[in-house]
Amino acid sequence: MALMEKDKPQAEVKPEAVPEQSAPVAAAATPIKAKGFRRYSDLEYLRLNVWQKFVYRLLCFFVAIPKWFKNLGLKIWHGIKKISLAIAHEAQDIVMTFIHGDWKTKTSYVVMGFGNIARGQVLRGILFLAFEVIFILYMVFWGGYWIGMLPSLGKQGPAEEYNEELDTYTTVYHDNSFKILLYGILTLFFIVALIYTWRLNIKQNKISEEILKSGKPLKSGKQDLRSLIDDEFHKTLLALPVTGILVFTVMPIFFMILVAFTNYSGATNNGYTNNLFHWIGWDNFNTLLNWNGGGSAYSAAFGEVLAWTIMWAFFATFSNYFLGMLVAIMINKKGIHLKKVWRTILVLTIAIPQFISLLYVSKMFADNGFIIKWMQDWGWVDGNFSFFGDKANPWISRLMVILINIWIGIPYLMLIATGILMNIPEDLYESARIDGANVWQQYTKITLPYMLFVTGPYLLTSFIGNMNNFNVIYLLTGGGPTNGALSAASGSVGYTDLLITWLYKITMGANSEYYMASVIGILVFVVSAVISVVVYNFMPSNKNEEEFQ
Amino acid sequence: MEETAKPVQTPEQKPSEMSNYQPAQFKDKKHMGLHAKRAIGNTVIYIILILMSIIWLFPFVCIVLQSFRCESTQPVGYIIPQKWGFDNYVNLFTTTNFPKWLLNTFIISIVTALLQTVIVLCMSYTLSRLRFKGRKFLMNFMLVIGMFPGMLTMIILYRVLADWGMTQANSIPGLILVYCASSGMGYYISKGFFDTLPKSLDEAARVDGATNAQVLVKIILPLSKPIVIYTLLTAFMGPWGDFVFARYVSFGASDGMNVAVGLQDFLSTTSNLFKNYTMFCAGGVVIAVPITILFMLLQKYYVEGVTGGAVKG
User: Fold this and answer.
1) What is the DSSP letter of A35?
2) Widest CA span of chain A, in angstroms?
3) Which candidate from A255, A364, A458 shows the least CB-CB separation from B313?
4) Is the predicted pLDDT of residue B119 greater than 90, yes or no?
5) For chain A, which end, N or C, has fewer CB atoms within 10 Å of the first or last residue's CB respectively?
6) Residue A408 in contact with residue A350, Cβ under 8 Å?
7) CA distance B130 to chain A (A)
8) What is the C-alpha to C-alpha distance for residues A146 and A188, in angstroms, rounded to an integer?
């Protein structure tokens, strides 16, 4: 057994050979059939020791990757197939409705809502018609221009031009690329909305025809309105929130994704603010990821910052998680008095707005703060010591942000863990105690698995949240100490900078390279999405959301 | 732990020992040992908890103490003031724009709290209890959209607000608009709450002829007090701490700042820091005290919301 334990480090290096080596117990029970990876039965798995279980699971993970990609590919393929079939079906339905429909339906293909009005559903008809009229007017007066300019993003930049009225030269701002892109996207949204409404209008004509043929009456305008608080109540409730999300989140995201393919920045150009920019394709991505080779300042900075971002997210999430759980267990232990007092003291940190506590703590540990002065007075450190400014030892500031984040985060986790710990049935512990389990065993076999199962999704979201934890980093260190080796990239990259703070610093910098910020933002999304998808697929708790209803 | 007092369930006993039942005097001896062990364990925990309390409260005690310091305004190497007084508070309200910031933030947070609560409740109620075509798609879509860093949208929102004249000194309506518009994305916690209400309630009312709107108003809303208060509380507290976007929108115009931006400005440069450090502490106290009191009063609801939200994911 001991000999086998020594073999295990090799196991990670040579995955194929592992099962035979790392599973002596299983090997003794059943002869090994084939070389290579083999899944254990439940009984065999239970016989492994902790370390073997870990290696086995790791192997399972790696072995599953090709299969996982295959499934993903299949899913995408099926998705594409489904969508194209749906489109074909819609097109067929549109044509068939036109062929079989009466003249009212046929007119509705051009004049939206005509069928509704002609069949007595005036309210619906007027809404359809009004939408069409507004759309046409918009396209004629404004939309056409924006859409037409979208491919070039404007041709004529700002210039000094002779003004006859004033008899001097004045600055004339011609095409504004920002507005072209913005309103171009809005116009595209509008066109999509029109196509959808047009399709809806045709569908309704078809349905009304069928209803009338079967001899039933159509819904009146009054009934339509009434259904908005009954069967169609979701439309009423969702109208406002979804519109808000579309205009203030989806549209800006579209915009910023497109900006990543332009050279939009806040830099001045011949003395004018840069209101003319162009499509430049994948160049910005190439600058950041450097796939053509050659090396660039941005790609070096991106690698550093991404590594630290993931490291930070990992430590910030799990340090808070385990310490918060520990604190909750300590406070909830039977025989500990004043439970409420301990909890209240910790919760106080949540109540006080974060910017106050974070800013104050950052000043406490700052170079002129009293903590350093005390440490100097006591002779612990010399005059050069700095928590957040030591460029030679950036790990000091990195450690400090993680520690202060623990200070911020433990109260939340304490609250969450308290609630969950109380839900663990007491008889589980009771029977464990009867079987002679000590406190540590009770923790690892009951508390921890239960917590991990229940809070799996929470851990994932808090990991992603920590990757984007702007406040803690920016208010504590501002990203510093500055990393001198990466000064060629804009945004003065620091050792504690996360991707998100770097992005912010780039947009607030002298040249405001929005295009670079957009590329970084997109990559943050890609990283979060990949991590989420992978973790979610391996999580035990893909629960049924209706289990409590 | 009371259960361990019963002889059969003492943890030290191995299953094999349990068969020969121990007489009373042995049992008591074992108990003494347990008690002593537990007492040591509890003492250690008490020491840890006391240390933690000190660490957690220390910055807040410092901030209060320094806000009363009158002899100097810069950071110093001691925490107990040599000369006590209300100078910093008086200066804060008379020489700076702090009252304006306070008013701005108060207006923003009241309006935001109300609007955001309505929007979040609409969203979460619909997604939780109504079934309609596209529901799954909508939820997945918002999940994906939510993974884009919000920072990215700031640039464009700023330019749009600037176009509408809602930046700098007029930033209040702009900030309210942006805080509320996308708040539907944060439906998770209250959806988790609605998910736990029994579905039979709705069904019974529907059978009796109630419309969906009546179900919401007459049946679900009266049961939703905890989640309504939770949403109001978090929405109200949000604007007090928002710093990034508020700074972007106010863009240096003092009249359009909220407290977070204004107070951060106090410390932005070293010369400001030396001039305003104690005033920043005073400002922090002025903001933190009412919010903390409010929070402590409604703590129960907050804890319920946070706990439920984490469990449901």
Assistant:
1) S
2) 100
3) A458
4) yes
5) N
6) no
7) 7
8) 10
Q: Domains plus CATH for chain A?
A: 2-68 (no CATH), 101-217+247-280 (no CATH), 286-538 (1.10.3720.10)
DSSP chain B: -GGGGSGGG-TT--HHHHTSPPPHHHHHHHHHHHHHHHHHHHHHHHHHHHHHHHHHHHHHHHHHHHHTB-S-SS--S-SS-SSB-SHHHHHHHHTSSHHHHHHHHHHHHHHHHHHHHHHHHHHHHHHHH---TTHHHHHHHHHHHTTS-THHHHHHHHHHHHHTT-SGGGHHHHHHHHHHHTGGGG-HHHHHHHHHS-HHHHHHHHHTT--HHHIIIIIIHHH-HHHHHHHHHHHHHHHHH--HHHHHHHTT-GGG--HHHHHHHHTSSHHHHHHHHHHHHHHHHHHHHHHHHHHHHTHHHHHHHHHHHHHH-
Give dist(CA A306, CA A312) in Å, integer: 10
Report the residue of A183, A228, A249 to disrupt the B interface, i.e. the one with the largest count of B CBs within 10 Å: A249
* Nearest in space to B104 (alpha carbons), one of B263, B283, B288, B258: B258
Largest CA distance in chain B: 87
Kindly report the length of chain A. Answer: 549
Chain-centroid distance, C-alpha B172:
22
Q: Between residues A207 and A61, which one has the greater pLDDT? A: A207
The answer to whether B153 contacts A249, with C-beta atoms less than 8 Å apart, is: yes
Q: Which residue has the tokens 């697929």?
A: A537
pLDDT digits (tens, 9 = 90+) for A115-170: 888 888 888 899 999 999 999 999 999 889 889 888 888 777 777 777 777 777 77
CA–CA gap between residue B259 and residue B290 (Å, rounded):
14
Paired with A262 in beta bridges are: A279
Please report, for residues A83, A106, A154, A236, A520, the alpha-carbon distance to residue A89 in angstroms, rounded to integers and kept in the order given: 10, 19, 39, 29, 40
Q: Is A456 on the interface with B (CB under 8 A)?
A: yes
Q: How far apart are CA A252 and CA A250, in angstroms?
A: 6
Alpha carbons A386 and A367: distance in angstroms, whole number: 6
- In eight-state DSSP terms, residue A163 is E
A361 touches chain B (CB under 8 A): yes
CA A126 – CA A118 distance, rounded (Å): 11
Long-range CB pairs of A21-26, under 8 A, 24+ apart, other chains included: A22/A48, A22/A52, A22/A55, A22/A56, A23/A48, A23/A52, A23/A56
Whole-number Cα distances in Å, A53 to A19, A39, A245, A450 = 11, 12, 46, 19
Contact B139, A545 (CB under 8 A): no
Q: Residue A161: what are its φ and ψ, rounded to 5°?
A: -130, 150
Nearest to B121 by CA among B238, B235, B240: B235
Task: Please report which helix (H) or strand (E) contains residue A159, including its range.
Answer: strand A159-163
Q: What percent of chain B has pLDDT over 90?
A: 22
Distances from the Cα of B35 to the Cαs of B14, B38, B39, B45, in angstroms? 19, 5, 6, 15
Half-sphere exposure for B199 (CA within 13 Å, toward CB): 10
Give start and end residues of each alpha helix (H) in A139-250.
Answer: 144-149, 177-213, 221-227, 233-245
pLDDT in tens, B202-237: 889 889 888 888 888 888 999 888 899 999 998 998
Query: Cα distance from A384 to chain B (closest Cα, Å)?
Result: 16
B221 and A CB contact within 8 Å: no
The backbone region for A281, taken as left when phi is positive above 0, alpha when psi lies in -120 to 50, beta otherwise, is left
Q: pTM for the complete prediction? A: 0.81
Q: Is the CB of A279 inside 8 Å of chain B's CB atoms? A: no
Q: SS3 for A296?
A: coil
Kindly report, residue by residue over A54-89, the tens digit of the pLDDT: 788 778 777 878 887 888 899 999 999 999 999 999
List the structure tokens of A443.
Answer: 């923790």
